[in-house]
Amino acid sequence: MSRPDVPVDPPSSPEPIIAVEPDPPVKVPLAIEDGLAVGVLATLALITLGNVLVRYFTDQSFAWTEEISVFLLIVLTMAGASSAFVRNHHIRIEAFADGGTPARRRGLAITSHTIVLLFFILLTVLSARLVWDEYRYEDTSPAIGVPTWWYSIWLPAMSAAITLRTLGILRRLLRGAVQ
Q1: Which of 70, 137, 141, 146 is most buried when burial is the number of CB atoms within 10 A of its CB?
Q2: What CA–CA distance (Å, rounded) separates 11 from 149?
């Protein structure tokens, strides 16, 4: 016998508060950046947990953890930036960027993506020069003593990836494939 205050059929799953937008069509899957970000974040959590436990139980600290963590934070930031640009989740003033006529929005999108493209081309070139200098002068890290270009090489690599992603978006914008 059922009680009147208890529903007989379980309710269907509630609507999500924030709807998940589908990923835009891209040739290279965004799962690469997403997977890299998840892996780096998990590694950062494990390194930090290990350092906290060692410091708690021994009053010592692993000097290398900060060095590795800074490097991983750069990789995490760049992977997140690449994903955000493609998904159009980058920082902007939406009332300004999404307002007005479709032609105005398209013009603003082309302008902003062109500026982003130029910035990341410049960042790729300058960070590659930094890596070359670190390689040429044989700089080593203070905690571990490994070559610093092992860490720095990721900045031009990730900047180049963002450059290519932004170039792809800009191409689709110029063709009119993206609104």
Answers
A1: 141
A2: 57
Report the chain's mean pLDDT, rounded to a whole number: 88
The residues facing 147 across adjacent strands are: 140
What are the Cα distances from residue 92, in Å, to 102, 118, 132, 141, 154? 17, 18, 34, 37, 26
Residue recorded with tokens 């800009």: 170
Q: What residue spans define the domains of the chain?
A: 31-175
83 neighbors 30 (Cβ within 8 angstroms) = yes
* 140 DSSP β-pair partners: 147
Tokens of 89: 């989740």
Instruction: Say how many C-beta atoms besides its own lie within 10 A of residue 90's C-beta.
Output: 14
pLDDT above 80 for 94: no
Q: What's this model's pTM, rounded to 2 decimal places?
A: 0.80
